[in-house]
C-alpha cells in the first residue's frame, strides 16, 4: 500500500507548476532542478506519483519512437530522423545512468529486444525491417536465424518455433513502478514539492486552479507544464488532442533459472513478435513472465474508469497467447492481472512543446513507448523552459502539433475499427500466407 504524500492546502506561488506526477512530470522537475537548483517547482498529482501508465507499463525502456522511422524520414528528411534515432538510443543509457547515480533500484538491465517471426509473412516483415534500418544507416539491428548462432537467441527461436527474429540491442528491462517512485524520492530530495491527492481542474498562463483532499486553491506560477498523458483526454484544454487506449498485462508465478535458460530469455531481454495486435513481454528480476498486449476496446467519449483496467476476455487472450508463444510454459499459473490507458495522438506522433509567450509546456502522446521517451521529454522541456538552444530542442518532435481526434461517434467507430482490423489482419495473414490487405487499409488508424 502506497501512502499518499500530503495534499496541497491554500494558495501557493511557485516558479514552475507541473500537472501530473508521472515520469514526464518528474523527469522535467529533475532536469529543471539540475539546471537551476534555486528554481521553485511544485508537482500536482490527482492520485499518487506514478499512478498512471508510468507505474504500470510493460517495463521496456527502448529506443523505439511511436512514429515510424519511414514516416519521420518522409516528414523531416534523413538527417533529422537519424538524429532522433540516435538520441533515443542515448536516452536508454541516460535512464540507466541516472538510476545508478541516484540510487534508484529499478531492476535496470540492458539486454535488447527480440521480435519473433513465426511464419513466412512475419519473417519477410523482419527482413524488411532490418534491411530498411541498414539503408537508413542503423547497423545495430540484426536478423537472427536458426543455425546462425549457438546462444540464448537460438534457444529462443527454438522455444517459440520461430523462423527468425530481429534483435535490437537498444532496450533495457526495468520495473516501472520502482523507477517512478524512486524518481519521486530523488526530486523531493532536490527540493521539489510533490502534492498528491491534488487535482488540477483548470489552468491558464500563470495559474493553476486545484481541488483535492486539502481543499481548493490557486497556484500562481511563471510556467505551467502539462504532463498528464492519457488522462488529458478528460481534462479541459487537452481533450481531443489525445485518445486513451487501454493496454492490459498479466504476470506469472516465478519460473526456475533452468526454465528460462531453456527458453533463451536472459535477464534484461524483452520480446514481442510481428503480429499486428501488439504483444510485449519481459523476464522480471524475480523470474516471472510479465506479458501484455492490446485488445481492450476504446470507450465512448474517451472515458477513463477503474473498471476498464480489467477485462477478463483480454486477460484470457494474453494467457493463451503466452502459452502459444512459449509452449513449454503453457498453463503456468498467472498471479497478477492489471491494465490502464496510454495516450494516442491522432497522427501517432508524440510531442514535447513549449510556448514562451504563454509559459505553458506540454508533452505526451507516447503510444506505449513512453518509458524512455518521457526522459527525453523531461530533458527537452527543461531546456525549452530555460531558453536553451541545443541538439535536443532541434529534434523534429519539438513543438509538433497533432490535429485533434474526431468528435463522437466517429472517434468511437474509428478507434474500435482499428482494433478489430488488427485482429482481422492477423487472421488474414495466417490463412492466406500473404501480407494483410486489411492492415494496409487501416494503417492510418494504427499509426503505420
Question: How would you describe this structure to a colleague?
Answer:
A hairpin with a 5-residue loop joins strand 13 and strand 14. Helix 1 runs parallel beside helix 9 (370-385). The chain has 12 helices and 18 strands. Helices cover 34% and strands 23% of the residues. With 448 residues, it is of the alpha/beta class. The model has no long low-confidence stretch (mean pLDDT 94). The chain starts with 11 loop residues before the first strand and ends with a helix. 47% of the residues are buried. The longest helix has 24 residues, at 78-101. The strands form 3 sheets. Strands 1, 2, 8, 9, 10, 11, 17 and 18 form an 8-stranded mixed sheet that branches. It has helices at 23-35, 69-76, 78-101, 120-135, 152-159, 176-189, 257-263, 312-325, 370-385, 410-432, 437-441, 443-446, and strands spanning 12-19, 41-44, 60-62, 113-117, 142-144, 164-168, 171-173, 193-195, 198-204, 207-212, 215-226, 243-252, 270-273, 279-283, 289-293, 334-344, 351-355, 360-364.
